[in-house]
């Protein structure tokens, strides 16, 4: 104890001074560290504020976004390359390759409430009436009153289910025969709204220019509307109904109204049914009804479309068409539904190729029909059966194979009358 | 005191040993913290060095930039969608819609001193002589001798005030009638310089191809220059004068020289005044004078342009045109001036829509005139009055409404002679 | 000592309590610092995970990349503006300017193993057979079996050395006369592989559409292959050999087969040698041999190409062409070689302009020849000498000047027969 005390009495003075020195140093060091850390935090926050690049949620694309989300800018596009072999009859169809779609888009958000999009189609399918080289989307959309959206510019006029869906998400390489009765895109104004189980959209737009439009005459006008109702919208359990109407008044100085369909394969330039240029049409009203359901990997879908023409100097005419399809995901995926637009959305494989899986595999069948013969107009009547095999390697990579068999083709007076050609169409699809 | 000493003698040994241990631990911890912080700083600096994305100052677009600023890359574009209704006379003008401009651009900086830009016009206004589908800007600019700039490639040749301004920043939907006398863009070389109160620009460029240019003949050539002087350049207080000259020698084997103007609304395809294809023109000299002033929300602006043609086998001819305009910002904004280019710049609303304000509102009026009749050429003479209402929702979002009244139209022998049509043109403008 | 003890006995109690307090504070502070640093590290890691932008290695462009590298997105393009003066004979060639190439591309990687590219040519050289406005690259490439690469879509079919090289990296403004015998791009499937000293590539593709292709006939088909071998591939010491073959079967209903060459300057629209449209060709086989060597700043390169036509209703025909060229870097650079593709790559100046240097300077000469006259087809025979001066201001900025002298032109019956024109062509090249 004395030793201890002696020790304590002897040695502490040295220890205590040194310890105090060490304490002083430590306090200074810790203060310096605190200041350095504050500096570092500020530097990192500055970096973060300048970092506007985040991966887009679907993992396929890239998007720049301001930290607040009020401003964003995104670029992307798609490539679709086709190959087709035709087993033709009298009317030759022409095997070959085709760049079906090659698009680039830019889109973004400005001042939180304004979305814009600009997309251009670079592929030149000059024989296709609804998909030729040119501006596709070019619009500004106000979402300040969301879920009410107001759109102005060039955009797709609401009509029909397949028509409103992006080709990204279609089950077959081409839309059905009946999809000739759709308004396509136009320059105008649109309004849309939606609830938990419904969507409603309407638009007024100028005439889609087809062929040579004389500049001197007034442009035609379109009014279109579509409503959908979905009592069930759960993943893997969807029931959907929809109805559309489209009134068109053609340009006053003559008009190039025409309905026609390719045999659900786009490599050929031939339209097996075709009304030719219809003149003297005062106006027409098209209507469409749709129903679809999803039960796990099974999907059913059908649409009926009809167009009634009014002609002052000739009999009124009426054309129609329909399709019904079924598809099944062998790998168990299910088609997602987007209630705000009343459409089906992109399928995501459970396990993408390259991420340890074999992607999603889907088989599908479709029966489709179009009748373009009425009131002295002999556009023809056609019925097709399509069988399809789709391989979704990843959400945005897809290989498609369609076998189309023309079951019936009535077009009296035309080389193709009574032909029953079939086709095998392959597609490579990538969007980014 | 003895107690204290006893206490000191009794307890310290334990405390001191523990304290020393704690000190050791603290020193070790602080050393570890310092090292971790250094690692963290290095990591953050690496992130910062790889972070090239910063918001562009005008808040409307995004730009990637290297930390040094020596390299940058930016993409953007614009959409302009028009609607027009015409109150026409004998000459039909044709109501309708039009995608007026739909452009995408990429631009950037390389190795600090080199700027490049590439812009493409996707809208196909095939009836417009100066704005049709195709490459607009495609140039490389050297700024190593700044403020002297050297530009090579395809770019706008210096001539006139309205012509040199981007359509982003014009007061009316269309440039004035007199703007047919401008050289447009060409492939060539340009030099420009500027001081605190002046700018000077000159260019030599190939002929702008119009219609079918036979490849065998030598291309025509252009020389153009523009100088501006602004005694006052303060915000809200600008006085501006300018003068331009343009000499053109057409292609040697025939030439498709033509001057014409639409009635200051572009949806119609009709040019109410039009010289038709002028052949046998040896060369011509165009000149222009401009004056403008800004006093707070008030802006005044006027230009006069004249073209003198020399023809060996016919009488020389001379055409001219002018416009004068006034505009007033109801919401108090003022037009900004860019002295380096001698032009007016983008208007920024005091409070944009969506950011708590109602944007900027502007009213404007313009009187414009063009005379394309001389020396046996009867292109016509036209005078228009335009009244405009502009709503700038944000710096890059604008709704425009123009009422144009043709006050006078002398074009003997043409259907449109003595017509006095009027038009109402609406535009949606967004640039990004 | 007593004093010390006394001191120790007197003062320590105070010091020790304070010191313990200081220690407590320090421990708490250091704990807080540790926690703050952990928070900071997490924040920085979150920033880093969201930071997908990194400078591309060549310092000329920008690229977005996910931290894992599995996803990337890049945009770029190029501008090439030409000026040419012709010293012509009977056949006029036409001085002037030309936008030779104006391209934008987007490319990227998806799910690690998939590369895609989409490029569009905006410059409209309608008179050029291989370089007109339209989609250039639009393909998807699987690299999961690298170095074996599988490509599908629209891409360059393997054939020849100059043809497979990007115009970025060519020594002269235009490819040689003999390069009319190349397949160009097509929609199809390609496979390529490479080793340390060799590369091998093959492709099957549809017919490149030239002019009006009737949709009813089956498209023609191409099979092409190219192999290269390089015994030496060291920087500054390269020896390269290659051979290619291309079999083409034209469309069944008539075909627009045509071979022709401009006089190695593209501003003119005139092809001095031209077979015209060849019909009734059953098929043809083209073959090519190549050799090249690099020894420091010296580069030698030569190719020979031949096409053999089979015609049922006329005599078989055979055309051929060749070129041999030498170039020398006055500033000591050497042409880099890319063994995986069997081509020469981009030249990087030792010191770029703006980075303290004067760039790279290169002189070059080329002799080229094409013979399109055989079996009653009088396309003509031409031989040119080209002298070139290239100034590489930076890896992606180049000024080029080519003097081409037609040494011999045999095209009996044509205006250009026996002409010996010369041309001076300047080019501004920037890619980004």
TrEMBL record, chains A, B, C:
<dbReference type="Pfam" id="PF07396">
    <property type="entry name" value="Porin_O_P"/>
</dbReference>
<dbReference type="InterPro" id="IPR023614">
    <property type="entry name" value="Porin_dom_sf"/>
</dbReference>
<dbReference type="InterPro" id="IPR010870">
    <property type="entry name" value="Porin_O/P"/>
</dbReference>
<feature type="coiled-coil region">
    <location>
        <begin position="16"/>
        <end position="43"/>
    </location>
</feature>
<keyword id="KW-0175">Coiled coil</keyword>
<protein>
    <recommendedName>
        <fullName>Porin</fullName>
    </recommendedName>
</protein>
């Amino acid at each position: 104890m004395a030793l201890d005390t002696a020790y304590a009495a002897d040695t502490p003075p040295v220890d205590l001074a040194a310890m105090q020195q060490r304490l002083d140093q430590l306090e200074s060091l810790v203060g310096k560290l605190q200041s350095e850390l504050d500096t570092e935090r500020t530097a990192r926050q500055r970096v973060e504020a300048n970092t506007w690049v985040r991966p887009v949620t679907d993992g396929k694309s890239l998007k720049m976004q301001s930290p607040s989300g009020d401003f964003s800018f995104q670029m992307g596009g798609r490539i679709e390359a086709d190959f087709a072999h035709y087993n033709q009859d009298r009317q030759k169809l022409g095997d070959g390759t085709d760049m079906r779609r090659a698009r680039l888009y830019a889109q973004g958000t400005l001042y939180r409430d304004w979305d814009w999009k600009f997309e251009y189609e670079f592929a030149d399918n000059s024989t296709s009436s609804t998909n030729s080289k040119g501006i596709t989307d070019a619009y500004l959309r106000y979402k300040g009153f969301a879920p009410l959206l107001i759109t102005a510019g060039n955009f797709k006029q609401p009509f029909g289910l397949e028509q409103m869906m992006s080709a990204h998400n279609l089950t077959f390489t081409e839309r059905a025969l009946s999809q000739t009765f759709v308004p396509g895109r136009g320059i105008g104004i649109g309004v849309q709204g939606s609830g938990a189980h419904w969507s409603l959209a309407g638009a007024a737009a100028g005439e889609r220019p087809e062929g040579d439009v004389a500049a001197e005459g007034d442009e035609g006008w379109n009014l279109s509307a579509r409503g959908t109702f979905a009592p069930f919208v759960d993943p893997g359990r969807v029931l959907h109904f929809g109805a559309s109407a489209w009134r068109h008044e053609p340009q006053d100085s003559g008009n190039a109204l025409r309905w026609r369909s390719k045999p659900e394969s786009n490599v050929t330039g031939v339209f097996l049914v075709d009304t030719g240029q219809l003149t003297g049409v005062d106006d027409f009203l098209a209507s469409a009804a749709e129903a679809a359901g999803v039960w796990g990997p099974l999907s059913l879908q059908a649409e009926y479309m009809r167009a009634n023409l009014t002609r002052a100097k000739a009999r009124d005419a009426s054309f129609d068409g329909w399709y019904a399809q079924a598809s099944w995901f062998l790998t168990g995926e299910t088609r997602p539904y987007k209630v705000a637009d009343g459409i089906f959305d992109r399928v995501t494989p459970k396990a993408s190729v390259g991420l340890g899986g074999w992607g999603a595999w889907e088989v599908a069948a479709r029966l489709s029909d179009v009748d373009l013969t009425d009131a002295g107009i002999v556009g023809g009547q056609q019925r097709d059966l399509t069988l399809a095999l789709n391989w979704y390697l990843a959400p945005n990579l897809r290989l498609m194979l369609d076998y189309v068999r023309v079951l019936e083709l009535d077009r009296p007076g035309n080389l193709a009358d009574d032909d029953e050609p079939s086709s095998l169409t392959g597609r490579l699809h990538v969007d980014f």
